[in-house]
Amino acid sequence: MIKYAIFDMDGTLINSMYKWNRVILDYMKNLGITPDDDFIKKIKTKTLLTSIDYIHETFDIKKTTDDGLNFIYYTIRNGYMNEFDLKPGVVDMLEKLKSMGIKMCVATATEDHLAIPALEKQGILDYFEFVQTCKSVGYHKYEEEYWNNALEKLGSNVDDTIVFEDALYCIDTVDKMGFKIVGITDESTVNDYDIIDEKVDQYIESYDDLDYDLFK
Questions:
Q1: Spatial distance between the Cα atoms of 128 and 94, rounded to a whole number of angstroms
Q2: Which CDD domains did the record assign (predicted)?
Q3: pTM for this model (two decimals)
């Protein structure tokens, strides 16, 4: 029986991945740079920090990594405060799980200073026991230690916990660990839909379609 739920945030609770996926291009536009397709392909294989440094080095930009991060954080924070919406059916679903006595947390790669205000802005922060970020625990979401840390804080285990995720690399990890999984569709993962569908217990576009029998 499922008693606990772990939710990703971006692309799972909040419709924000489209902005995250293009924010590095927005930064380049701000610098007056128009990258070619080859450069964009190279950027997509890098982390946010290494992308910023690579841009500065390639185009001889006299800015620091922090300068780039400040632009990106400002852009994303503005999105959380003024642009992004919840995924369809989120509030009703959270209310339903709360009424069922399900204890919930958020497990995100987004840093605390962005994630907590984002959830608060959407009016859903209080549904969760805690918000876990990669920075706060020192692990990435592709590492089992990240998820084990969330289980420990919840006081749960793999057998009584369900994970809600949109990203394939996270789904790969929790699938290997034996979690029950609900996949959430997002435009950022459209190329992974078929693979994700094979790994999850249910794949949904809206939380209105969630099968609550998964919690039995």
A1: 9
A2: HAD_BPGM-like
A3: 0.92
